[in-house]
Specification:
Length: about 120
């Protein structure tokens, strides 16, 4: 979970989300959910946030959302997908047999003022 320093942006990583069941087992591409505070009340609840962005992993076993971060002012987020070989899940893939390796990536988003 990542929270901006000003408390207006919340990023929640779900590396096990968006999974599918295959004959070889569970595939977790992962996801991340970004929420923006839309109204500040003395006691903040889920209804005070709106969904700003939903990201889904680009490949099987990506585990997107394993690590997330938000800048202090809530204008930049980073979401990591470390990637995993099926062997990490106790499985052997045809891709691994061909020498194909899982890859890692980081998504970085910056919100800009539309009037600037």
């Amino acid at each position: 979970m990542g929270l901006s320093g000003d408390g207006t942006l919340l990023v929640i990583g779900a590396p096990g989300a968006s999974g599918a069941i295959e004959a070889s087992g569970f595939v977790a591409s992962g996801a991340a959910y970004v929420y923006r505070l839309v109204s500040a009340t003395p006691v903040v609840s889920s209804s005070d946030f709106k969904v700003e962005l939903v990201l889904e992993g680009a490949s099987d076993y990506a585990s997107l959302g394993r690590a997330v971060a938000a800048s202090a002012d809530g204008t930049v987020i980073a979401v990591a997908a470390p990637g995993k070989e099926r062997a990490a899940y106790g499985q052997r893939s045809a891709a691994a047999d061909r020498g194909v390796r899982a890859y890692a990536y980081v998504l970085v988003y910056e919100w800009r003022n539309a009037s600037a």
